[in-house]
Structures are given as C-alpha cells and as structure tokens.
Design goal:
mainly alpha
Amino acid sequence: MGAYILRRLLLMIPTLLGIMVINFVLIQFVPGGPIEQVLAQLEGDGDAFANIAGGGDGAGAEQVGDESGYLGARGLPPEFIEELERQFGFDKPPLERFLNMMWDYIRFDFGESYFRSISVVDLVLEKMPVSITLGLWSTLLAYLISIPLGIRKAMRDGTKFDTWTSGIVIVAYAIPGFLFAILLLVLFAGGSYFKIFPLRGLTSPGWEDMSTLQQIGDYFWHITLPVAASTLAAFAGLTLLTKNSFLDEIRKQYVTTARAKGLTESRVLYGHVFRNAMLIVISGFPALFVSVFFGGSLIIETIFSLDGLGRLGLEAVVTRDYPVVFGTLFTFSLIGLVMGLITDLTYIWIDPRIDFERR
C-alpha cells in the first residue's frame, strides 16, 4: 500500500503542473490584464474589459493603438508604465514569471493580492467559512436523506413508492441549483409569498451581542435556504446511486444463500448487504464534498449574497487579480487530487479485500 500511495503522490506533480501550465498560457492571451485595469481607472475610462469588448468611445479606441500597448496609457509617462510592470512582475519573460510563481507555490507562498493589500492565504481563510458551511452541511444533509431513501427504494423496487419517489428524484436532478435557489427566495424570503427566512448573509446584524443559543439559531436560520439549494442535485444523484448499489448486491448469490439459511430480512440487509452496497456510496463522500464545496458555491453565494470562495474567485477573474486566481487554482487543484487519493484509501478502509497496489 505504501508503494501505491507513493505512486499516486508522485503522479500529482505532473498533473498539478499541467493544470498550472495550461491556465498560465491561456491567461497570456486574455486582454485586460491588471496593468490595463489600473491605467483605465487612472484615465477615467472605467472597466478595461468593457472598452475592449465594446470598443469604448473614440478616445478608448485610440488608446488601444497607443505605442505602449496598454489600454489607457495615453498621456501617462513611460516611466510610470515601467514601474507598474515592475510592481506586477510583468517586466520579466513569461517563462521566468511562471517558474518563479511555481517555486513560490511549492513553498506555499502565494503572495499578496494586487488590489486588496492582503495575502492570498489570509484572503482565502477569511472567505472559507462560508464555503465550508455550504459544502459540509449540504453533503451531510444529502447523505442523511439519500441513504435511507435509496435503501427503501431498493427494498420496494417496482412498487408505487419507488415510482413516485423516483419521479421526485428525477425532477430534483433536472432542476438547476440556481433556479431552485431563486424559487426558494421568491417563496420563503420575502418574494411574492412568505417572509420566513432572511434574504442574504450568514448572520443577522448584532450577532456578536446574542447569546450562544441565539447565535446558533440565527446561523441555522440563515443557512437553511442556501444549503437546501446546494443539496438538491447531490441528493438526487446520491439517492439513485444508493438504490442501484443495493439492488446489485441484493441480487447476488450470497444474499439468496443467507435467506435460505432462515435469516431475517433485516439481518440479511444490514448484516450482509449493507457493508458491500455502501462501499461506493461512503467512499464517494470526499469527492462529493469537494464538488459541492467548490463547484456549486459561486452561483449560490451570489444569489444569497454570501461572501465566500465562489465570489472571491469570480471577482479575482474579473479584476485579473492573478495572485488570487493562480493561488486558489493551485490550492484547490491540490486538494482535489488529495481527495482522489483519500477516496481510494476509503475504499480499502471499508473493504480490506480491495488491493489497489496489485492493480
């Protein structure tokens, strides 16, 4: 097993390097970098991206063709442009910049945000509680609902219960998370119907002055709708996975043998089938958490005005805050690769008969 873990860890190096190389190269061809952002603001042209996409006014179009090569550089001294390039690190060739960046990242030195005057690590730690809240509670809720429901559907396969619950699951799987989030806001957050839950944020004003029980209640009051919206797709897919896994096991020969020995149905189910059927479901917990944590947070955070990692990533891309973009990309890619290894190790922990090392 040690050799397998070592091979997986070594494989992470070229994988992570490939991810960073591809994204770094793509960034070089995207117009509207951080220097253009600064120059556009200094010249009063607003957002550099708007001028590039729409051509801007007459002055903006002339600035694009300025000899400095930067939007908004017209009328600014060349020394100022060179100083900006030096501060942002663009006075070096792309290859040198990439190698310096990767050397810093290997030492987990992600630098400082271009526009926030705060280190990338501190910025991520500041935004992480919101995303952890959505990811953790959504994953736990999905498992608490999906496993009992999936087992029940497998045991009553083909009955009316299985049919109408399958309809609900399919509808839930088909509804986009952002659409369900908007529906929840309209219905329960002061839209056209009820005003039961708050419209935005994770806590109410004056949360620090509340008692512990009031803080806990206020916290759960705020996260109810965002967590419900994040749970929808994960719950639907996990329910079907649980049902199909149990159906596969129930139809195997050892289950028939156990029943022939006179064991009760509950003993057969929870003494023999459960462990084998839950292998694929439980081992997928790390991957599901990561997918909810990183994949679905942006839209949900935006709709419910939550200041988490999703919105941080979007703002960093829009403003071309490269330290935040590449720092979070490196960190989350590494976490995803480590979670893949943990998933494999979970397989072995649940069922020691699995041997990845031989494979």
